[in-house]
From TrEMBL:
It comes from Mycolicibacterium flavescens (Mycobacterium flavescens). It comes from the Bacteria. InterPro entries: ACAD10_11_N, AGP_Transferase, Aminoglycoside_PTrfase, Kinase-like_dom_sf. Residues 33-261 form the Aminoglycoside phosphotransferase domain. CDD domains: ACAD10_11_N-like. It holds the Pfam family APH. The lineage of its organism: Bacteria, Bacillati, Actinomycetota, Actinomycetes, Mycobacteriales. This is Aminoglycoside phosphotransferase domain-containing protein.
Length: 452
């Protein structure tokens, strides 16, 4: 992670960088405690003018596409289009930083009155339609694979993510099953090839005084099917309420000329949720030092449950509840150590902090400790149920459930297991994961699928 903005050397670098690139007379720096990339709000005074700047890492959290300059190139490619994006002022490739226009407004819609919130949400859908009306070949985009068939519009980027998961995280049958489902159910035709934003929707645009001022976060952009972005709207609406989704998609359809196709949108939503799940799996495997770690690491449980719920509904597979008995407190050294850390964070460390970033980091650590304590209560019961479930499904005993899940992934890819039987197991699996991750998920543990 980059130095904090209160590090003297880093602060001196930012002052010099702003003087060189923007002609700054004075520079004021404040860290931003949000998102998954280190960011700083910078006010540049130049004569009588105040230039608001945001400095961010160019490296996204996971480097799914491997090119740190990719997102910056996309911003610049869209600069003179109807899609509102921030201007890029400067890039420091050595430190992996980009300085961009800090547009007026916020990504939070909660403070708006209902009528204004609806109007802003509809305006975003029109901007997405404007994006999908652009000819990607006329934009100076970074190199991107170009889908040439209807199938590739649904699978080219998906396959990249599945390879990324295979290289960086343990086998996960939810990922394998959903990936195979998306391939089998890929649309037979595509209306047009577009620049897909990826991660589209609430939380990733800025509004000010009832108008959309910028669409942000383009690191997952690729060429593909426009309905992918509508699927991302569904996925992000699970975390950031976005009003009446039926209304949102009607507005998009009217602006884009494309039909309101629920099946295509749900295909895009399963794809989007799967990618978020993959990101969380990789964070679990790699570790991460960002305050957003608890949210990211719980993603596989949250989106895994919703992906399987969606696929079960589409297949008409019923699912009963899972019953898990917590292990009683044994007074072990590990339990005592976790209790000590929790008390120290909550009662001694947190009350003494004033720095927003340090407070966020300490709160994230506290949530993680509570998660580990939840594991002490339920991990043994979950492992036992998983082993027995997998033995019944595979017809052979597995001493470790992870080995059974790996074998199940192989059989799913080989199409040698009954789909509905696998879906029933996965329904129980994601319920157990939801229990295991309950302290990190909070109210998200019971978030239902959206309806539209």
């Amino acid at each position: 992670m980059l130095s904090r903005s209160d590090d003297a050397d880093f602060e001196a670098f930012l002052h010099e960088w702003m003087r060189e690139t923007l002609g700054a007379d004075e520079v004021s720096v404040q860290p931003i405690v949000a998102g998954t990339r280190s960011s700083w709000s910078v006010d540049v005074t130049r004569g009588d003018d105040l230039v608001p700047v945001i400095v961010r890492r160019t490296r996204d959290t996971l480097q799914v596409y491997g090119d740190e300059s990719r997102e910056t190139q996309i911003y610049r490619a869209l600069a003179h289009t109807p899609v509102p994006v921030p201007d890029i002022y400067a890039v420091d490739t050595e430190r992996g930083l980009v300085a961009a226009q800090r547009v007026a407004g916020t990504d939070d819609l909660s403070g708006l009155d209902p009528a204004t919130r609806e109007a802003v949400s509809d305006e975003l859908m029109r901007h997405i339609a404007a994006l999908h009306a652009l000819d990607p070949t006329a934009l100076e985009l970074p190199p991107m694979p170009v889908p040439t068939t209807a199938q590739e519009h649904a699978t080219l980027d998906l396959d990249h993510w599945l390879r990324f998961h295979a290289a960086n995280a343990p086998a996960n049958p939810v990922v394998t099953f959903a990936g195979e489902w998306l391939r089998r159910n890929a649309p037979n035709d595509v209306d047009r090839t577009v620049l897909v934003q990826g991660d589209t929707g609430p939380g990733n645009f800025v509004q000010h005084e009832g108008r959309v001022t910028a669409v942000v976060d383009w690191e997952l952009s690729h060429l593909g099917d426009p309905y992918e972005d509508l699927g991302w709207v569904v996925a992000r609406a699970l975390l950031f309420p976005f009003g009446n989704l039926t209304r949102r998609f009607e507005v998009y359809s009217e602006a884009s000329g494309l039909p309101f196709d629920r099946a295509r949108i749900w295909h895009g939503a399963v794809s989007a949720m799967l990618k978020i799940l993959i990101a969380g799996d990789v964070v679990r495997a790699r570790g991460h030092d960002d305050p957003q770690y608890p949210i990211m690491v719980s993603g596989p449980a949250f989106h895994g449950r919703l992906v399987i719920d969606a696929l079960r509904e589409l297949a008409g597979v019923e699912q009963g509840p899972v019953s898990l008995e917590p292990q009683p407190d044994t007074g072990s050294e590990r339990e005592g150590s976790l209790a000590f850390i929790r008390t120290t964070l909550r009662e001694r460390l947190l009350p003494s902090l004033s720095d927003p970033y340090q407070i966020a980091q300490a709160k994230a650590a506290l949530r993680t400790v509570r998660h580990l304590q939840q594991g002490e209560r339920y991990d043994a019961a979950i492992e036992d149920q998983e082993r027995r479930d997998l033995a019944s499904l595979l017809g052979e005993d597995m001493s470790v459930a992870a080995d059974g899940r790996k074998e199940l992934c192989e059989r799913i890819r080989a199409d040698t297991v009954d789909t509905n039987t696998v879906l029933s197991y996965l329904g129980r699996h994601v319920q157990r994961e939801t229990v295991r991750m309950a302290e990190l998920l909070g109210p998200m543990a019971t978030t239902p699928l959206p309806r539209f």
